[in-house]
Amino acid sequence: MTPRPSTFAVPWLLAGPGALFFVGLVLLPLALTVILSFHAYDYSTGIQNTFTLSHYVAVVTDGYYLEIFARTLRIAALTTLICAAIGVPEAYILSRMRDPWRSIFLLVIIGPLLVSVVVRTFGWSMLLGSQGLVNQALQLLGFPPVRILYTETAIVVALVHVMLPFMVIPVWTALQKLDPMVEAAAWTLGASHFTALRRVVMPQATLGMLSGSLIVFGLSASAFAVPALLGGRRLKMAATLVYDEYLQELNWPLGATIAIIVLAANLCIMLAYNRMVEARARRTLG
Amino acid sequence: MAFLSLERVSKEFGTFTAVCDVDLAIEKGEFVSLLGPSGCGKTTTLQMIAGLVEPTKGRISLDGRDITHEKPNRRGLGVVFQSYALFPHMTVAQNVAFGLEMRRIPQAERTERVREALALVQLSAFADRYPRQLSGGQRQRVAIARALVIAPPVLLLDEPLSNLDAKLREEMQFELRRIQRKVGTTTIMVTHDQAEALSISDRVVVMESGRMTQVDAPYRLYEQPSNAFISSFVGKTNLLAGTWRRGGASSGAEIGGVLLETPAPEIADGTPVTLSIRPEKILLCDAGAGRLDGRVASRFFLGSQWLFTVETPLGIMTVSIPNHGEEPPAEGSPVGLDWSPANLRVIADNAAAA
């Protein structure tokens, strides 16, 4: 007979390593960052051992930071929207493909993730630069050159490129679970292909779209390499701002404050979105 | 001109021929079953009628109109899928209303027709449930209501009962027939279950590896199967291979030195033939009193009947006798087998070999 205490301990022992990992690598640094954000800072003497709310007040009242936050949200939201617009049809086409094409295209879709983010982003900066391929092509066609590099457009383009797989894969997984005959049933009842997609197929992929857009939004809002390389020195996003506060200004508490505010804002938006969409989907899809 | 007709319809997938030269004419109001083992092309045939699979060759016409290449959403046929294919994110009422919505039926009429359709399948109380909250049988009835509410000229059923348990399947068979009688819709059902096909259809189409091999009323199909495959696929049977002997007064098949008398069409002396006799057409009697003697090898009690396997000089024979409430011969005991020669059927041997 196994003694009772040890059976009681089994779940704890099994969950232990994972929990320790989580505490050590996520909760602890996060807690330290929160504490750091309340430390006072002096430019001549560094971090003080006194506590203050002044960083939070400074960030919330300064238009400079607010503008960067707004830009971060705007870029993340736009990237999510474009990823959904491209990724959902892409996932549908993928789910209707047969092997070997499906495997090949799946690889093509995941492709961007296999290349280092820095290399990929430099690639984009070469394409989008003032003498890049895009501008050369425009000039050949008789258009005036446009400034793309170091604009929000460049950031969104590069973000969409890397985020697309995070949208395609959850939606594809959701579509895989669908009975293909359900779509056929809609046709036999008189629905056109488009109506069947809109009324029958897409509503069932809602949960996939939800998780896809949450991943894309979260990753885009905290993206660092893409805005750092394609946004230039002026066009900052939240992550590059935090980097600058830490490594250029050496004002760690202010950097920590910004990081915490971004995290809180991100969490609020994602939870609200999740609640809104998931509640509706769960009610009907069960 | 039949209401729905298939003329030399074939479907090839690459080099594989799924359906080959199917010719079928179905009258208005008929209930026709496509019966066959899995992979015989029956579902492909149904999907070609529904418009979900395009025929490689041939012509399908409905009420004089060629629909061979028409899109499924223009045909207006009602289809009940094997998986039911209900819309999981819509309520029962929304599922049923979908087809009417696509036809732009005004709201008031739509509500009324949905109510009628749900009443027909006895699901009025479940209008606001989601499919996942229903049992298998209820889902199936929703699928039927959804297909019938658009008043289709033809109702197509793809293995409609195969996902139900035995008892429910039997109930739904009669339910299906009741509904079909009531609305009078021409119905085509695909099934691999011969009992299902025999019990509710007006005509049964037997399909074997892509071809139609017999089209007949259930009773005639059972009594006069055109080949050995059908006679063993539709019901149980005993198949005996022998040689045809023509005598003066009696002609019959010689099997293992025994001449079995059969009234049969003109067959040349010495032709190899296959005989078929149904288990329920054989009677058990005392040893020596029948046409053939044997010994009971095993017996199975099926409630309403007993199923015997009897060892005879001609091989193992299956016999079924109704349960008369008395203990029948025990295992190992000698018995005689008797039958009326008219029930011993000759199956053309070329068909049996195919």
TrEMBL record, chain A:
A Gene Ontology biological process term: transmembrane transport
ABC transmembrane type-1 domain sequence ranges: 69-273
Chief subcellular location: membrane
Subcellular location(s) per record: Cell membrane
Gene3D superfamilies, alphabetized: MetI-like
Spans through the membrane: 12-41, 73-92, 104-128, 148-172, 207-230, 250-273
Keywords annotated in UniProt: Cell membrane, Membrane, Transmembrane, Transmembrane helix, Transport
GO terms for cellular component: plasma membrane
Signal peptide: none
Membrane topology: Multi-pass membrane protein
Pfam families for the chain: BPD_transp_1
PROSITE patterns the UniProt entry points to: ABC_TM1 (PS50928)
Family: Belongs to the binding-protein-dependent transport system permease family. CysTW subfamily.
Protein name per the record: ABC transporter permease subunit
Protein's organism: Microvirga makkahensis
UniProtKB/TrEMBL annotation, chain B:
Gene Ontology CC annotation, any one: ATP-binding cassette (ABC) transporter complex
Origin: domain of life: Bacteria
Domain ABC transporter, chain residue ranges per copy: 4-234
GO molecular function terms attached to this record: ATP binding; ATP hydrolysis activity; transmembrane transporter activity
Matches recorded under Pfam families: ABC_tran (PF00005), TOBE_2 (PF08402)
PROSITE patterns in the cross-refs: ABC_TRANSPORTER_1 (PS00211), ABC_TRANSPORTER_2 (PS50893)
Manganese found in the keyword field: no
GO annotation, biological process: quaternary ammonium group transport
InterPro entries for the chain: AAA+_ATPase (IPR003593), ABC_SmlMolc_Importer (IPR050093), ABC_transporter-like_ATP-bd (IPR003439), ABC_transporter-like_CS (IPR017871), Mo/tungstate-bd_C_term_dom (IPR008995), P-loop_NTPase (IPR027417), Transp-assoc_OB_typ2 (IPR013611)
Alphabetized UniProt keyword annotations: ATP-binding, Nucleotide-binding, Transport
Family: Belongs to the ABC transporter superfamily.
Protein's recorded name: ATP-binding cassette domain-containing protein
Organism field: Microvirga makkahensis
